[in-house]
Amino acid sequence: MKYGIIDVGGGMRDAYGAGVLDWCEDNGVHFDYCIGVSAGSANLSSYLAGQRGRNLKFYTDYDLRDEVMSMKNYARTRNYVDLEYVYGKLSNSDGECPLDFAAVENNPAEFVVVATDSLSGRPHYFVKSDMSQDDYGPIKASSCVPAANKPYYVHGTRYFDGGMSDPIPLEKCFADGCDKVVLVLTRPRDFERSPKKDSLAVRLLRPGYPKAAKVMAKRAATYNAQLRLAKEYEKQGKVLIIAPDDIGGMKTLTKDREMIEALYHKGYNDAEAIRDFLRE
Known about the structure:
Elements: E1 3-7, H1 15-26, E2 33-37, H2 39-49, H3 54-60, H4 71-77, H5 83-89, H6 101-106, E3 110-117, E4 123-127, H7 137-142, E5 152-154, E6 157-161, H8 170-175, E7 180-184, H9 199-205, H10 210-217, H11 219-235, E8 239-242, H12 257-270, H13 273-279
Parallel strand pairs: 1-2, 1-7, 2-3, 7-8
Antiparallel strand pairs: 3-4, 3-6, 5-6
């Protein structure tokens, strides 16, 4: 059996996913295949490194700094989120909270990071070998939120957030040989995305990135269809959906430590369902 896990990201809401992964660390749960979207890819990198608690430190401390997210950043660089600060200055080997990338490399699990090609609008799946010590370009690309950030260059190609083109990469998991998959969502399992939320990003993308804009316009429909598919797989016993029953109005870029910690603990507690799923 090949077991996979998906962390779909969701900005600061993915403190929930951090809680799920810390439960996995505490209970010796390991997966053969780990695929992350946006913040989910960052969560999984710490998990694969065995750095329990590292993600929570980012959500409750570093990510609340103006150096990470602020209008000052946007005014200066046209990037609301400073990806170089988060996944460079803080995460590099000489940073405040370095990622143990050697441990990631030595972990036998596959690590896949989803990004969106800004010119074609198609999903691109980076793998572990696309990264190296202090060069986490794929994670930066996957976390590059359109409208809030300029596209991020990796090997000469510009990318946006993976959630635009493949928000719930379940079919990728099964195509890569997974038999059972834990799917970590950061919104309630019955949440349906509305295209209205993406309308501003679509307008801003259309002049320079028309194909990416088309994909963004279909993002809600893609998410909703993928979620329906996940529920069908769940009925068959192939998927376990872990999702918060409520997020308390928390948004993608919320800077509220109390809300973040509450969502983290909710994820940690909800992860208990994984135990029986893997036994089955």
